[in-house]
Amino acid sequence: MRRPPISRRTWLWTSTTALAAACARPQPTQLPDSGPESARVLHQRGAENLIALAELGSAVRWLHPSDEAQACEWEPMLLAGIRAIEAANSRVELAEGLRGLMGEVAPTVVVWRSVKLDQQAEDAALDEPACRDEDAVGEESGAVSSERARPPADKSHGRLGTGRSGPPARTTAGGASDRKRAEDAAKAEAEERDAAAEDAAKAEAEERDAAAEQAETAAQAEKTEEAEKAEKAETGDEGETGDEGETGDDDETGDEGETGDEGETGDEGETGDDEAPKPEPPKSEADASEREDRPPLSDALFAEGEDLTITQWHRRGYAEGLPSDPGCARRIQRRPQTKASCSPAKRKRDEPQPCSRCDGDSYRPLAPGAPALLELGRGISSLVPTALWTRNGHTLPESGELEPAPVFDERRAWDYDLRDRATRLLVVMRTWTGLRHFYPHAARVADARQRLIEAMCAVAEDDSPLTLHATLESMLAQFGDGNGEVLVESGKAARRWVPQVSLRWVEERVVVCGSAWDSIRPGDVVTAIDGVAIDELIATELVRTPAANASAGIERAVARLFDRRERGATVELSLVRAGESGEQDLISSAHADVRSDRAERMDPRPEAAIEQLADGLWYVDPTRTRRLGSVARRLRKAKGVIIDLRGQLADPRASLLAHFVGKPRTIATERVPAGPNDHAQLPLERAGTRSVDPDGPTVRCPVVVLADSRTRGRAELELLGFELIGAPIIGSTSAGDLGEVAQLWLPGGWQLRFTASELRREDGGELWGVGVAPSVPTEPTIAGIRANEDQLLAAALAQLD
């Protein structure tokens, strides 16, 4: 029997309901039975405990090759560790907690108290809050408030220090811009940072080599001593004994209990040389300050047999198993004294490429018996093997058949609730450890552990998602990641609304470059926004604005001054406007009614992205047009071309440079964190090159390029290529943040966007933080903006003439 047709209304209702059910976010499952933990103060003891967990957990997760570590779901385990280990009172409890947490996933890892500490002084320091609220500390009393200030109602400002200098003090007076000096200072600072980091890395490597050698020597001594004891026991040197109480030559005692106490034996010497000593009583809490001997390494690290192979990680860049990851990571096996076999199995055409050849610089054969030494803090050390013996495809000690854990992706990220205090700490910890291992410039960060403490304080004591967002942005700013961004809405940045007003940093002032409001004119100098002085606003924004150099940092901070979370919010501006009778102070307002990612760029450049300025003289703006192939066809008979790269390319996959080269040209070399090495580190290794291939039609005419600190991403790579073919560059230094970008999922459904590789010039010259310098330095002026004149374009026209 034929069924009646489904009505349109029923079909629409069913389809809509099914779509809503499919798209609904899952309910968080990783919560305590009592619900989300509320915010509370983080004390120094808890902060240092969590640092030890972060250091050890990340090393085991990404560098320890055991089967158990690959079968572990790390986020749930670390979340449980945060809730348990933060409260560890003594070093004994901390060491035991770390052993217990890592025992199942890394049975060969060793943790012990390696340094003697003054327990009384340590307790006094660790009982204090980890971070003091400076606003709540009295000048004389030093009282500390238990509640930290939340972000202002209209903006989510960070509260963390970065060490980055604020804007120049002069923002209301005239004068020539000191951007060039700032860039020179930034370059010198980067060189000093690199030299200091290299010296520190060298010293640390020497120290770790010595420690590893000492640890290996101690391990061999322990094994020798144990063998001698076993041999003595077998030959009966300790006397013929029925049990411990019946000793041959010693006093006649039924068992140890019948000796009364030590005093009744005369002295310790009269008990006989061969009597087994009494076991020492367990250490009390007062003994927690003492160091302990390093526990012996696992026998699994010294296994023997012809059927054994060695397993270790081979990583090149960031990779956690998602198809979008830019790097690769796989465990490789090799026989002792041989290289690994890297011949890939046959694979489908669309599958990602395997890790690069194992005989490259990024592959270093590691030994199971030489684990890496980690200093975890609070006088706790750990030895983490970066290679393990393997039998029949299973790492030793064997745990049976184990399936790899599922990849931490968007679906699993939604299992976590950001209202929970421990979850927010986990988000900060995952961000920090990810940057420490896979951000190629992490070594430049001064006192990285203190930066982690500050971030944990902020999110532990405030449950606002705005605070968490501001904290992550501040951490990216501290690491100096110019590509860093926190994505909160389906892979996009948080939605912000701005008025149709464009601001720039010109002559050390915040200047209006374009406006859709009649009361706000180009050339107006902004001295305050919503009653807050512009100096204070810029300093606040710089703290949470990721950038690789000073020029890009202040440019981006100024561009964010208008961001508002609510559509239609009123923004009040205090302005200084120059007129015929001199400067006058004005108050004006605008409404934030345009999304920040869709705001029209308003500055004095040609309105059309492709325009013929004169006979045969063309202007092209690739940051506003995508079809560069059709653009090149229009330029075949051009007598001169001005290419405007002041921004990001509209189509990152397109290249206008390809139409100006006659043969393939290498532009830059790429380096990624690769390894690990025997110190459980991922040093930078060359991973390939960035080049451009010719594309038709070829354009043969003089070309001039415009650039400034807004030139970033693929536009900066194009700029470097034009510099290599000898094109004059007009403007100022580019952003200096070239590198491959990766995205890392965070608990709660957010994503972290960060730089995962470094690009350098073909000759090895540094680009990060340095950028591409102009051959004809040119800066805009306030007078030029008032006259609606593009002074960089005027300089380019003069260059072509």
Automatic annotation (TrEMBL):
Composition bias, Basic and acidic residues: 147-157, 177-211, 222-235, 275-296, 348-362
| Signal sequence bounds | 1-20
Which domain of life does the protein's organism represent? Bacteria
Enumerate composition-biased segments (Low complexity): 212-221
Which ranges carry the Tail specific protease domain? 628-776
Q: Where is the composition biased (Acidic residues)?
A: 236-274
Q: Does the keyword Signal apply?
A: yes
Does the keyword Signal feature in the UniProt annotation? yes
Q: Which InterPro entries match?
A: ClpP/crotonase-like_dom_sf (IPR029045), Tail-specific_protease (IPR005151)
Give one Pfam family, short name only.
Peptidase_S41
Q: Which UniProt keywords apply?
A: Signal
Annotated region described as Disordered, given as residue ranges: 123-303, 320-362
| Descriptive protein name | Regulatory sensor-transducer
Question: What is the native source organism of this protein?
Answer: Enhygromyxa salina
> Which lineage is the organism of this entry classified under, starting from the top rank?
Bacteria, Pseudomonadati, Myxococcota, Polyangia, Nannocystales
